[in-house]
Amino acid sequence: xxxxxxxxxxxxxxxxxAGDARRALAIRxxxxxxxxxxxxxxxxxxxxxxQVVATSAGLGALxxxxxxxxxxxxxxxxxxxxxELAARLRLHLNVVRVLADDLCTAGHLAIHRPNAxxxxxxxxxxxxxxGLRAVPDSGGNTLRDTS
Length: 147
Hints:
The structure is a single chain. By secondary structure, the chain is mainly alpha-helical. Helices cover 52% and strands 7% of the residues. A 3-stranded antiparallel sheet has the order 2-1-3.
């Protein structure tokens, strides 16, 4: 074999390993929620913009919480949305929804659902879009409407 070439079985092994990793990533969210797609409360799934914040009981119980639950409560020392929390912790959004709902039921998080009228108010959406357009990109330029 020439320098820089790999044996065919090595390439196949790398492909199998990559496939195994992708399957593991697909299965993991299912395991984190024990197969559940909703939290322990009977309500609908938490909206993306729902604000979550750790309670004093939650912060006191950090040492007894496992893995992702610990990370969620620790990250919620300051209020943030479910979407921000999922992005910050690099967890699937629905996993965060389920775990946050569970943590709220256990008294470790306080959840503040948005006012439904505000969420559907078109003026709020326009202000959000205008605010996003005003944020400079990496080159220091603001985004412009291309439509």
